Amino acid sequence: MSILKGDITTQDTEAIVNAANSGLLGGFGVDGAIHQAGGPQIMAECKEIRARQGGCPTGQAVITGGGLLKARFVIHTVGPVWSGGHKGEDDLLRSAYHTSLALAWERKISSVSFPSISTGIYHFPVERAARIALQTVLDFLDGHEFAEVRFVLFDDATLGAYISALTEIRQARGHV
């Protein structure tokens, strides 16, 4: 597992994860950037999924091709909107990461890049989200082998939160 600052749309992993909305119709932030960089094929596939199953519920994930991206696939997951932490937001965020990895595993995708889900326009506190994201991924990796799972973070503050959270988790697990 690696953590870096960068642009998720330029990653060369087999799949990148999109912090999507439940309607799968594009949006702002990571979602908008992925749709813009990936071209109309991604939106066309999202519309097919929407027509077939009505979108994607919070905490779940669906997959499309990567369009014009380096990544062959985009895993679209819907994280929770922060509402103070009393409406199951932690569990929904955990589920968004878990179902994304489970979908990648099911499709035999060996490398995945994640953004920081729900910490932009959905206002999930970054430090809390980082701990949930990293713990969920590390727990999943205990039973599943991937060539690489990468966190690609947009700014220094988010990068710092993820590095701090990983340090805390490793200390708690007895790793330095």
TrEMBL record:
Coiled-coil residue spans: none
Q: Does the keyword Iron apply?
A: no
* CDD domains assigned: Macro_OAADPr_deacetylase
Stretch forming the signal peptide: none
- Segments forming domain Macro: 1-170
Q: One Pfam family, please name it.
A: Macro
Domain of life of the native organism: Bacteria
As recorded in UniProt, its EC number(s) are: 3.5.1.-
Check the record and name the SMART domains matching this protein. A1pp
Query: Which GO MF term does the entry hold, naming one?
Result: hydrolase activity
Record key words, sorted: Hydrolase
Listed InterPro entries: Macro_dom, Macro_dom-like
Class of the enzyme per the UniProt entry, highest EC level:
hydrolase
> In its UniProt entry, what is this protein called?
O-acetyl-ADP-ribose deacetylase
What is the name of the gene encoding this protein?
ymdB
